[in-house]
Specification:
Elements: H1 24-44, H2 47-56, H3 66-76, E1 80-84, H4 90-98, E2 101-105, H5 122-129, H6 136-149, H7 154-169, E3 172-177, E4 180-185, H8 188-191, H9 196-202, E5 207-210, H10 213-217, E6 229-233, H11 237-243, H12 247-257, H13 264-269
Parallel strand pairs: 1-2, 3-6, 5-6
Antiparallel strand pairs: 3-4
Helix pairs in contact: 4-6, 6-7, 6-11
Length: 270
């Protein structure tokens, strides 16, 4: 996904030692977000996310440095977290993923945007994304998206971005327990959102569709509203199967098909 900030948010720069300095208010916002989310993710998120969160043992009272997370992640799946400036395009985003580096915007939202922030902030990047990067299939899928993306022409980037959006960012997944299965949130955008996590997990207003690559590639989305459509993976193994497809051929076919008509909720929000 193209990472950006509005005029409201500016990236924080690391010092000569690679340390990003946050003030007391910014650390307090992290702590408040953590406290607001921790019980919700334990209640609603997929088990593998909870396991990754325990492995990383994120601080609850301060914003962690990317180097702290990188040290743990690298020992597990070979991934690292790299602070990025306020704006990176698809080219750099996909190149970072291909090299197992997750781009982390360095600012944190204000209290005015506490419940929902359109721009990906450090809480979203660290609390939302990194726990599942401890999972080998999520880590491999993310790298595969990056490898494909950096070899695509620019006019195909947005099509591939939909695949990332409806899996890593806002995907749901079936969690199998003995002879039963429940549909639960998986995506990082859900894990880091105090309002959309509950919505995705419990709302009857949203549509939950079985995951189909061509359906996903042709489904428009917006970043500034709760998602009216979520796609449900059968398992983490399905991510491996998706990565093994000829996704370039899928994208070219999707372009011939064209985008679906926007969901009514997208049109109403315009």
């Amino acid at each position: 996904m193209s990472r950006y900030t509005s005029n409201q948010y500016q990236a924080k720069q690391a010092d000569a030692q690679g340390v990003i300095h946050y003030n007391d208010i910014e650390h307090e916002i992290w702590s408040e977000l953590y406290q607001a989310q921790i019980s919700l993710v334990h209640r609603h998120m997929v088990n593998e996310y909870i396991e990754g969160l325990a492995i990383l043992d994120l601080p609850n009272h301060r914003i962690p440095q990317c180097s702290e997370i990188s040290e743990k992640l690298h020992n597990i799946t070979g991934w690292q977290v790299e602070p990025v400036p306020a704006l990176i395009g698809y080219d750099r985003f996909f190149d970072l993923l291909a090299n197992r580096r997750f781009p982390a915007a360095s600012f944190i939202r204000t209290r005015e945007d506490f419940a929902y922030v359109k721009e990906p902030d450090i809480f979203h990047e660290i609390f939302g994304h990194t726990p599942l990067l401890t999972h080998p299939q999520v880590a491999a899928f993310s790298q595969a998206i990056g490898e494909l993306g950096r070899n695509l022409t620019a006019d195909n980037h947005a099509w591939l971005a939909r695949l990332y959006w409806f899996t890593i960012e806002f995907g749901l997944i079936k969690q199998h327990n003995n002879d039963t299965s429940d549909v639960v949130p998986m995506g990082s955008g859900l894990a880091s959102s105090p309002t959309e996590l509950i919505y995705a997990a419990t709302s009857e207003a949203t549509e939950r569709r079985p995951f189909d690559v061509m359906d996903v590639l042709t489904t428009p989305y917006r970043i500034d509203i709760k998602q009216p459509i979520y796609y449900v993976l059968e398992s983490f193994e399905q991510l491996s199967a998706i990565a093994e497809r000829n996704l370039l051929a899928d994208i070219l076919q999707a372009r011939k098909m064209g985008l679906q008509e926007p969901h009514q909720a997208l049109a109403m929000a315009s």
